[in-house]
Amino acid sequence: MSASKPYRATVSGDGRDCLISESGADRITAIDFTTGEKVTSVAVGDHPQRVRLAHVPADWTGPAD
Questions:
Q1: Does a structural domain hold residue 37?
Q2: Fewest beta carbons within 10 Å, which of 11, 20, 38, 59?
Q3: What percent of the chain has pLDDT over 90?
């Protein structure tokens, strides 16, 4: 699996995938640790750098007042 200017890598929350910011393609790509195959890619803004993970409740609508 090749990546376009990989910048940083982070382990997914469940530990199954490696999340890579591809600064040359403006996307984040998940790669399965077991198979080495691409799981998915998501287009993001210009020149992605670090990937931060968070748990957000499904019913979250914004900050509390």
A1: yes
A2: 59
A3: 68
Q: 13-47: b or e for each residue (b if 16 or more CB lie within 10 Å)?
A: eeeebbbbbbbebebbbbbeeeeeeeeeeeeeeee
CA distances from 60 to 14, 52, 63 (A): 21, 18, 8
Of 35, 27, 39, 34, the closest CA to residue 3 belongs to: 27
Parent domain of 33? 6-43
Residue 57 domain-assigned?
A: no
**Over the stretch 44-59, which tens digit does the pLDDT of each residue have?**
999 999 888 888 899 9
Domain assignment present for residue 52? The answer is no
Number of structural domains in the chain: 1
